Amino acid sequence: MASTGSVSAWDEALLTAMIQYPVPVIKGPEDIQTQVDQICNAVKSTKAGYPDLDLIVFPEYSTQGLNTAIWTYDEMLLTIDSPEIGRFKEACKSNDVWGVFSLMEKNEDPQKPPYNTAIIIDNNGEIALHYRKLQPWVPIEPWSPGNFGMPVCDGPKGSKLAVCICHDGMFPELAREAAYKGANVYIRISGYSTQVNDQWIWTNRTNAWQNLMYSISVNLAGYDGVFYYFGEGTVCNYDGNVIQQGHRNPWEIVTAELFPRLVDKAREHWALENNIFNLGCRGYVAEPGGGSQNYLTWVNDLANGTYKLPWDEKVKVRDGWKYYPEGVKLGPMPK
Fold first, then answer.
1. Which residue among 40, 164, 166, 236 is the active-site one?
2. Residue 132 has pLDDT above 80, yes or no
3. Closest residue by Cα to residue 323 from 27, 106, 68
4. Any catalytic annotation for residue 126?
5. pLDDT over 50 at 206, yes or no
6. Rounded Cα–Cα distance for residues 318 and 202 (Å)
7. Which of 62, 209, 218, 305 is the most core-located residue (most Cβ within 10 A)?
8. Diameter of the chain by CA atoms?
9. pLDDT for position 10
């Protein structure tokens, strides 16, 4: 159940807005400041247009772009304490809205590559969730794999929020982890080009359905001189149906009203469709209480650090390939 997302919302409805942000063309640190200005202005104007707005979401790479030639230079990186993040905090506080933002985050170890990070800022200007991308898009993205797991935070209107980044959404295991920790709204921010347009829709729907939770997902939009980014902000109901679907327009705002309480009730009352519950109590009709033994080989192997596919030795691409044949280079930008 949801509406198209109007200027007002029910008392218990989570009104969300996803911004199909135009793909930034970034050449230096000064361009990052331009994006920060635009993002803060977008928070203000969107809240003015949708006064009951609870949550605004910006795509991956909206702050620092995705210029592979300058991704890992120190001047192009931020931390959660950077002034730019402080401006996002102020934008959320002054406009009384929660926000999801993207940053390329310096690693605590200066000898290691940065993280691809998402943060959720609450309407008091505080960071409610700090997530680092668990599955960087290999063999291209040079980010260190995330080390914070899949955190979940309490959000507005009874929501429990989790966020994943782009390629993370292709892994059903990550959506299941978020739901297992209680998330009823799964946020996906992305910077995909058109090669995986169809898969974007399929996985957004299956992540919602298999875990009985809303999925709200938004991608960059527009052309950066190399690739086209498809936008297509997607809101999926907990039954897997698409509630709202954006087009390919930069700056399009995709809105929807969500009812987190209905997710909670479906998880409590549904039987046949309650896949996430049934996984842990198999066949409870025949066996009271159901079977809880782990029967999945890959789960055991991953837990033991011995995960290996039968075709592992035949996999050809196992490193940075053509993009970073000598590894990731860190340091200042060339003069």
1. 166
2. yes
3. 68
4. no
5. yes
6. 26
7. 218
8. 71
9. 78
